[in-house]
Design brief:
Elements: H1 14-21, E1 28-32, H2 38-51, E2 60-64, H3 67-81, H4 83-88, E3 90-93, H5 94-105, E4 116-117, H6 120-140, H7 147-160, H8 164-173, H9 179-197, E5 200-201, H10 203-216, E6 226-229, H11 237-246, E7 252-256, E8 274-278, E9 280-281, H12 286-297, E10 315-316, E11 325-331, H13 332-349, E12 359-363, H14 369-378, E13 383-386, H15 390-393, H16 395-408, H17 413-419, H18 429-442, H19 446-454, H20 466-488, H21 492-503, H22 505-512, H23 516-536, H24 567-573, H25 594-597, H26 602-605, H27 619-624, H28 635-645, H29 648-653, E14 661-665, E15 674-679, H30 695-709, E16 712-726, E17 729-732, H31 737-740, E18 744-745, E19 748-749, H32 760-769, H33 777-789, H34 805-820
Parallel strand pairs: 1-7, 1-8, 2-3, 2-6, 4-5, 6-7, 9-10, 11-16, 12-14, 12-15, 13-14, 15-16
Antiparallel strand pairs: 16-17, 18-19
Helix pairs in contact: 1-2, 2-3, 5-10, 6-7, 6-9, 7-9, 8-9, 10-11, 12-30, 13-14, 16-17, 16-20, 16-23, 18-19, 19-20, 20-21, 21-23, 22-23, 33-34
Bound molecules: adenosine-5'-triphosphate and magnesium ion (MG).
Length: 825
């Protein structure tokens, strides 16, 4: 019988149901292995909190580990809650969640609400500039500093909440041994000044300032009724503190798997936590689960004492399926060739049950991706990179983003430097340096200085070559024009189009780059992604408390549940009266009603100017509000924010109509699943990574391999090479000790060297595990046959990496028999 009004509860097992329907007040912890439906529980629980316990979506904060996981959850909740509801959840990573609160309330801790997020690339350039002038002096005392190294030290410091002063004190305590650290402390200080001058925060700041805001202004969290954290085992100290703030009265659901902990497990300090354990794995076949568990079982003994193990046994109702294979190849190149061939073969041998979308190649670190990308490309296999920021680091993408950043925040120095001579404005190095020096002297940003020069308000124009000055004036005109447009235009693709048009970027790119076509594609992709962000990042924060009057008492907790106007309601009823295009920056403008202007629900933004001013604004607000009100609430800022926090997959995901093989780091693959997973480079020095030597670290490396393997649903292949290029050298490699130690579990072999023929039974199991219908056997057989006859002339089947001499003959015959003998069942 079905007596529950929520159909999704029918898709859950008993334990899952217990967790989903547990009352919202009080801490709940779901501890379970991979693929046991933890994320599914979390997602359903969000829906249930809304449907059954009548929490408003904007009273729920749900935090995931990666952007991609957040997007997955958003998609599922769009279905369970409907899109307008799902859009109001505060759903994202810790970073993106902090950004949302900082934009809205950051002013109370002294942040400008148009702050930029400085990505790693820009931070590195800035740091390199700080190091340059002292490099020679350092060399004399035998210190060579790299920007990466300093940034990593700073990042560690920020994670601990250490200031430059704190770092300096630590250096002094070390005496003469603290020389290097003391230099780092100076650079840290300079770096912080640089960030502030550019009106920007780096990634670590987002968490640090987020923490500061939530600690200092507790009322901003008044509307939060429940917080849910996925992949809890990976929260670091700052994130853990953030969670505790969100979970005021212990209204928290945390979900995690101690065995997948990458950063080490801390028990939650909620003593009355109710624990639910899940034991059925719904993701993977028996062979995959067995092999994965064999890996992780090794690491028990030396783990930290506080680590909670839940080795209650994870089981699957699926059969054993295709065995996990462990393939040895001679070098990294052949490994990539093998994977490419296997992808094609598996598609064929499953009778086209699979598409490229169903494959993932999971890497210990990004550098392993290059050879795979190029090899797969050679085989005409399209790929998508997840977890990197390569797309956003491309020259042409950075150029266009640079303009957008500068329009959004004139103080953002990296953007100014990037675009001032793009396209060429013949502003020479000396002229530019003079301009920058002058700006520094006057305490102005480079952009402000440039505007003054262009307006003839600064005498520096007199010392500029006439031509440069003319071009500078033109540059300022363009920026001003774009600024006005960004203020009035709610569609980011249109702003991008204007940037291209006003700057003549297409012609410039064509003129200066031989590979114009691919670069232009990227520019277009960025414009398309502008559209995507308008959909996938349309998230709002509760409008219940008004930043409009920050000194007023926070809104009552007992406000009637359904009566507070939603963002959409407010924004669609706002009167769009501001139409002036000519208000210069800096002039005080009437502030808008913040309740509506903060709405970044961009689907509505297309219809209404959400930055439109309201009539009755308290006077102190007008005085208090800066010029930046100009583009508050416009999608541009949301787009930039998303671009800075995004990883590559998101730029490509939604508009990717063609199926692609995912190439992804193991870290970025957390929580995700694919029908077929390859894990290359299962070697000593990779698993565990060469730098991880301490026992605890080694155990974490082992768990990382476990995470990678447990992403697979139906087919899992590990590969390793005898030799691999490291820089310009080829170095010998050997199998990872994690795998070597458990090739066999008792009598049972965990890995096969290869598995050349997928039988009909295999096909059927694969189909059921991934929830698809297999093709009728006759059709499948034709596809397989066509594949085999398509093997290129001159290349004999047994020369293919996947078909070793003997098993090809045996397997080939078996295959032929299976597919052509109708009697065979
Ligand atoms: P991980 O630890 O890797 O994050 P997880 O525990 O979060 O895994 P989910 O991603 O939620 O697991 O679920 C794994 C797969 O199992 C998903 O495809 C999900 O839809 C499916 N699943 C979960 N619970 C059930 C269930 N009760 N019945 C059928 N399928 C389920
Ligand atoms: Mg999960």
């Amino acid at each position: 019988g079905n007596d529950n009004p929520y159909p999704y509860l029918d898709t859950l097992n008993e334990r899952q149901t217990t967790a989903v329907t547990y009352p919202p007040d009080g801490p709940l912890q779901v501890l379970a292995g991979p693929g046991s439906g933890k994320t599914k529980v979390l997602t359903c629980r969000v829906a249930y909190l809304v449907h059954h316990h009548h929490l408003r979506p904007d009273e729920i904060v749900a935090v995931t580990f990666t952007n991609k996981a957040a997007l997955e959850m958003k998609k599922r909740l769009n279905v369970l809650l409907g899109e307008p509801g799902a859009n109001k959840l505060v759903l994202g990573t810790f970073h993106s969640t902090c950004v949302k609160y900082l934009r809205r309330y950051g002013k109370s801790i002294g942040l400008n609400n148009n702050f930029s997020i400085m990505d790693y690339d820009d931070a590195k350039k800035m740091m390199a500039n700080f190091i340059k002038p002292i490099a020679q002096a350092l060399k004399e005392v035998h210190i060579v500093l790299k920007a990466d190294q300093v940034l990593s030290e700073i990042s560690n410091a920020k994670a601990k909440g250490e200031t430059p002063g704190g770092m300096r004190a630590r250096a002094e305590a070390l005496g003469s041994g603290g020389q290097l650290l003391s230099v780092m402390a100076d650079l840290y200080e300079e770096y912080e000044k640089g960030l502030r001058a550019a009106g920007s925060l780096d990634f670590d700041d987002l968490l640090g300032y987020g923490l500061k805001l939530l600690r200092q202004e507790r009322h901003v969290l008044n509307s939060v009724k429940h917080v849910l954290v996925d992949e809890f085992q990976d929260t670091n100290t700052t994130q853990y503190e953030l969670m505790r703030l969100f979970a005021k009265e212990g209204n928290v659901t945390i979900v995690g798997d101690p065995d997948q902990a990458i950063y080490g497990w801390r028990a939650a300090d909620y003593p009355n936590t109710v624990e639910v354990h899940l034991e059925q794995n719904y993701r993977s076949t028996g062979a995959i689960l067995d092999a994965s568990l064999a890996i992780v079982k090794q690491g028990k003994s030396s783990d930290k004492p506080d680590k909670k193990r839940i080795q209650k046994g994870l089981y699957t109702a699926f059969g054993s399926g295709v065995p996990v294979t462990l393939k040895q190849t001679s070098n990294g190149f052949n490994e990539a060739e093998y994977i490419a061939d296997e992808i094609k073969r598996l598609i064929a041998h499953t009778g086209n049950l699979l598409t490229f979308d169903d494959f993932a190649i999971l890497l210990r670190y990004n550098a392993l991706s290059r050879i795979l990308e190029t090899t797969l490309q050679k085989h005409s296999i399209p790929t998508r990179l997840v977890g990197g920021r390569k797309f956003f680091e491309r020259l042409e993408v950075k150029d266009v983003l640079g303009y957008l950043q500068l329009i959004n925040n004139p103080q953002y120095h990296p953007a100014f430097i990037r675009v001032i001579n793009v396209p060429k404005r013949s502003i020479g190095e000396k002229t530019l340096q003079g301009l920058l020096d002058r700006a520094k002297e006057k305490g102005l940003s480079a952009m402000d200085m440039t505007e003054r020069i262009a307006d003839g308000e600064d005498s520096y124009h007199l010392s500029m070559p006439v031509n440069s000055r003319k071009n500078l004036v033109q540059f300022v005109d363009v920026i001003r024009k774009l600024r006005v447009q960004a203020k009035n235009c709610t569609r980011v693709p249109e702003i991008i189009e204007s940037v291209l048009e006003e700057t003549g970027y297409e012609a410039y790119l064509r003129r200066t780059h031989a590979d114009f076509d691919t670069r232009w594609e990227n520019v277009k992709e960025l414009a398309i992604s502008g559209r995507i962000y308008q959909i996938s990042y349309s998230v709002t924060i509760s409008q219940e408390q008004e930043a409009r009057n920050e000194t007023s008492a926070p809104a009552s907790q007992s406000a009637p549940k359904k009566s507070t106007p939603t963002t959409a309601d407010v924004s669609t009823s706002a009167a769009p009266t501001e139409s002036s295009n000519t208000v210069p920056r800096g002039k005080k403008r009437k502030a808008t009603g913040e309740a509506s202007s903060e709405a970044i629900d961009l689907e509505y933004a297309e219809e209404e100017d959400i930055a439109s001013p309201a009539a009755d604004i308290p006077a102190e607000e007008e005085a208090d509000d800066s010029e930046n009100i100009d583009i508050r609430g416009t999608p541009l800022r949301v787009f930039l924010e998303a671009s800075m926090l995004a990883t590559d997959a998101q730029a490509q995901d939604e508009n990717a109509v063609i199926p692609r093989v995912t190439i992804c780091t193991v870290h970025a693959a957390k929580g995700l699943e694919w029908p077929v997973v390859f894990v290359p480079a299962v070697e000593k020095g990779v698993y565990p990574f060469i730098k991880s030597t301490e026992e605890a670290q080694v155990n974490e490396e082992m768990r990382l391999l476990y995470v990678a393997m447990t992403r697979a649903q139906a087919v899992l292949q590990l590969t390793f090479a005898d030799k691999r290029m490291a820089g310009k050298q080829e170095i010998p490699k050997e199998l990872s000790p994690f795998v070597a130690a458990c090739r066999a579990d008792g009598k049972k072999s965990m890995f096969e060297p290869d598995y050349p023929v997928i039988s009909r039974e295999d096909r059927e199991l694969i189909a059921s595990v991934i929830g698809r219908k297999p093709r009728p056997e006759k059709e499948a057989a034709e596809i397989i046959h066509a594949y085999i006859v398509s093997i290129p002339a001159g290349k004999r089947p047994w020369e293919l990496p996947w078909a070793s001499d003997t098993n090809w003959r045996a397997g080939g015959a078996a295959f032929y028999h299976n597919s052509h003998n109708k009697e065979h069942r």
